[in-house]
Amino acid sequence: MTTPDEPAGESPHSGLLRWVSAILANATVITAMLVYFGWQRSDVMAKRLGIKESILGMSTRDYVLRSVGQVLVLLLVVAIGGFLWIALDRWLTRELETSGRLTAVVLRLLSLAWLVFPAVIYVLGFVPALNAFAYIAFPFSIGAGVLLAYYGAHVGGSPPARETLLRGFVALSVAFALFWGTSHYATVLGNNLADKVNPRDLTKVAVYSPQRLHLSAPGVAESPLPDDKSTYRFKYTGLRLLDHTGGRYFLISDTWTRRTGTVIVLAAKDPIRLEFTHA
Questions:
Q1: What global pTM score does this model have?
Q2: What keywords appear on the UniProt entry (predicted)?
């Protein structure tokens, strides 16, 4: 027999699943993740390139648009985990009717999930090939472990006392784990993006200016233009476009390296002209 709030065919603890899905699918949570992910990735990459993230002048819109693809992958993983959880719920609901030994073992594992999940991921971190995966997955394993342990208490028929208060702590733990894991994910991607910066793969840029810009980065060549009546009197070559954001162009030279290179910042509102050509 089902309660008025429980559709027929659902398990007695399906309300818990709906509560968790409502938290994870909340638009505010997803938007906050997009912004935080975009900022963290940009901050890590900027530091690796030798500049501060604040110099980029990126807006909230920039953070969101640059992180949509990666966060969608993260949400897809969460969705797959949700489907597996639903499958586990249906299986346990049937097995509880028989109260078999296997069910007792599963319930015991669920009660220890908050410890087992992080421990397994932590051990995987010592495998070189899985180090990055473990670094990203460890925070998420804590959140998943807390959720499964809480769920196991409900499945076992012994919901904890002070249910409302405990739900608040569980929601807080899951949110913390979600943003912590997002931070690790963004850090890994930011480092990967910085490692992949190769001037030869970037768009070539020629800068024209009415006056000398005194660009002294190694590999940059300054050429005075012969026409005295021209609006632009100097041309700078040997540059590559690193990024364009916040109304600024971020350029590096052909010989740029992370250790000794210089990042040149030119404002789009300055009286300059930029010509872009294929790398």
A1: 0.80
A2: Membrane, Transmembrane, Transmembrane helix
